[in-house]
Amino acid sequence: MFRLLISLSFLAGATLPALSATGERVQITGEVIDTWCYYSGVMGGPDAVTGTAHHTCALWCAAGGIPVGMLTEDGKVYMVLKWEGHDQVGDGKTLLSVQSHKLVADGIHYERDGIDYILVENIVSDEGITLRNHEDYGFVPPFAEPGQ
Amino acid sequence: MKKIAFTLAACCVATLAHAQDEGPYSANSQANEWGLFGEEKARFEARVTDALCALTGDCPDDCGAGERPMVVIRKDDDRMLLVNKSGAPNFTGANHRLAEFCGQDVEVDGLLVGEPEFTPGIGAKVYQVQLIRAAGSDDWVKTDAFVPQWQEKYPDADGEGPWFRRDPNVKAAIEKDGYFGLGPDVDKKWLEENAQ
């Protein structure tokens, strides 16, 4: 019987991806961000690629299927893999309505190889956009300004 | 003044980020340099899947058909790298191209990106995939598959300018909440106060 179980587990391992991470329930507070500009510095430092200043660019990137994240106050970025049960978060529209919003989200957290991921199950609260940094940075990038 | 501030910030960032890191997978890479935070060329063999599949075992055969965030799991060390960007400079990810290789062994070439010194709190670099080919193939494929599928999805999104200025979902969001996301009145006020 034991040999049979071992054999079955090997067979399962050959056909399914290894479950190398374990999820845990979390509730996080953070801003919904575009992770490419945040990680890469392509548009400037981290303070310039969040909030109102970067809102239009964040819409573009989310529409383009670039992973969306939640940035918590301690600087941790959670890559969003599900949003209120919807698993195709890269469809270019699901996350546009919450870009740059400060939210409290309840979900399942995974970590693998230094990257944090969240499967958001429920939005506990949504304060809307609270970081009004366009007063400091204007439009980031400048060609996001209408008419440019 | 604000544009000057942004330009200065961008210049400082560019200076800080300009140096290219050499990493264990940089040899033989053909990836283009972008001058990004912690940029490191990386070419390696990997298995393609989507992130949800790798973490939870929820694995559609098509990896979500380009609508799920994708990962590559490096053959050498089983390290999972989140693919954050395509090689195209047009605000697009690489999910559609990678989904074509769902479940396959491949070789990828691109940039590892991210530097905690500049962006405190990040735990690891993400991956910008510029080129991909199936294991054993001689032919590299660029990762700029987004715009053709977008055109197929939104055939009526015609007009001038790049896709992101014509995308119906982006246009609807801006029409509702403005360019800063605070409503059209806030945009109008800022534009009036900052008119050249």
Automatic annotation (TrEMBL), chain A:
Residues 1-20 form the signal peptide. Keywords: Signal. The keyword Signal applies. This is Uncharacterized protein.
TrEMBL record, chain B:
The keyword Signal applies. It comes from the Bacteria. The keyword Signal applies. Keywords: Signal. Residues 1-19 form the signal peptide. This is Lipoprotein. It comes from Roseibium hamelinense. The lineage of its organism: Bacteria, Pseudomonadati, Pseudomonadota, Alphaproteobacteria, Hyphomicrobiales.
